[in-house]
């Protein structure tokens, strides 16, 4: 029941943010959220004793929702996927899912309150991990992610939205394909060099035996 109460409050806070015509017009307070949720302020404070606690809970709720969308899209956890497939999932979801003005406001507010950024890093960070990749691959994956970030921002705010999100998605996915192809090509060169070195060593050994 406690979790149901928390979720009800967080959904009310998100709905309150979504109901405004502009992100700048959003006002989140214990009183306004309690009214939106149909609760008394003390009833809300049982779950969130301060505005900071409410905001931290709201950010965590939004970040978890995005991570869940990515898991549902792929059918896998981030640990089960390559960096390329994780980025493909984000690009696809960010350019096809119904985006929320509230999510954008919650995300952008983290820029001014470092505590609020932790939940985004915790839940989405594993999806953007590029450890072990070379600089070129990382730059291509980052460019693809930035394409998706921009698409999400434009759609959520209504400021200069794309007239053809499918084309944006196609180009972003092509960047990811390029990153993966570069890694595969580099791996192929490394294997070829190793094989050549092995063959050369074998030839040298054969020559010594013959001699």
Automatic annotation (TrEMBL):
Pfam families: TetR_C_28, TetR_N
Gene3D superfamilies on file: Tetracycline Repressor, domain 2 (1.10.357.10)
Annotation: DNA-binding region: 29-48
Keywords: DNA-binding
Record InterPro entries: Homeodomain-like_sf (IPR009057), HTH_TetR (IPR001647), Tet_transcr_reg_TetR-rel_C_sf (IPR036271), TetR_CgmR_C (IPR041479)
GO molecular function: DNA binding
Domain HTH tetR-type: 3-66
Name the record gives this protein: Transcriptional regulator, TetR family
Source organism: Brevibacterium linens ATCC 9172
């Amino acid at each position: 029941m406690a979790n149901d109460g928390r979720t009800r409050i967080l959904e009310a806070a998100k709905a309150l943010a979504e109901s405004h015509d502009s992100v700048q017009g959003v006002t989140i307070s214990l009183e306004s959220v309690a009214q939106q949720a149909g609760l008394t302020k003390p009833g809300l404070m049982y779950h969130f004793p301060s505005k900071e606690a409410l905001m931290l809970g709201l950010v965590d709720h939004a970040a978890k929702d995005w991570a869940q969308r990515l898991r549902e899209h792929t059918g896998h956890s981030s640990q089960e996927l390559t960096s390329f497939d994780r980025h493909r999932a984000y690009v696809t979801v960010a350019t096809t899912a119904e985006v929320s003005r509230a999510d954008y406001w919650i995300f952008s507010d983290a820029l001014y309150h470092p505590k609020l950024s932790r939940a985004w890093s915790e839940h989405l960070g594993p999806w953007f991990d590029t450890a072990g990749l070379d600089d070129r691959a990382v730059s291509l994956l980052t460019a693809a992610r930035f394409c998706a970030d921009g698409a999400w921002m434009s759609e959520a705010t209504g400021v200069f939205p794309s007239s053809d999100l499918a084309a944006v998605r196609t180009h972003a996915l092509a960047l990811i394909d390029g990153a993966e192809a570069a890694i595969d090509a580099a791996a192929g060169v490394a294997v070829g060099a190793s094989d050549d070195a092995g063959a050369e060593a074998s030839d040298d050994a054969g020559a010594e035996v013959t001699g």
